[in-house]
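Question:
Now give any protein.
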Amino acid sequence: MVEKLSDMARLDPLTGQLNRRAFLDGAAEERARAERYNTGIAFLFMDLDHFKRLNDSYGHDAGDEVLRSFSSLVHERLRSVDTLCRWGGEEFIAMLKNVDRDGTIAAAERIRRGVETHAFVLPDGRSVHLTVSIGVSHASGSGIEISEQIKRADEALYKAKNRGRNRVEYLENAAGTSSRARAS
């Protein structure tokens, strides 16, 4: 019973991934570890493209099934040390531990390509194809601010959306400049 209550407090009931509070608690712990060992920490902010259209066309049961499938697909493409969270709605965030910039972008691209080629099966047996936009931030060393890194990943996500969707955008940490990781 205690274990079940603990899971209910930490996990999103639809996808089984961490909820925002549990994710942020883990991110604070990882920040301390990244600073102590001078390793990288990265955030991938993900949003399914045109998800509202899917809900409007096929209903919320179909949307829920897609969210469950999407979270499984992303989880399978992350390393076992990485963490996935359903941030809210169709937005998810992943925290990658002990990773460099290139590894971060490669992970985001692996997810983007996996979603793009995946047929999401709906409850009625029909399938749909979707895409995902991903914003990436990466930091290492001392002075890592989790809220700032999440904000930067969110800003990069909006750049991906504004530049046509189905893409990864990376926001440089130090200079605050953006470099395109992949163009559709």
Remarks:
- The first helix runs from residue 2 to 10.
- The longest strand covers residues 40-48.
- Helices lie at 2-10, 20-37, 51-58, 60-77, 101-117, 146-162.
- Strands lie at 40-48, 83-88, 91-97, 119-121, 127-129, 132-140, 168-171, 178-180.
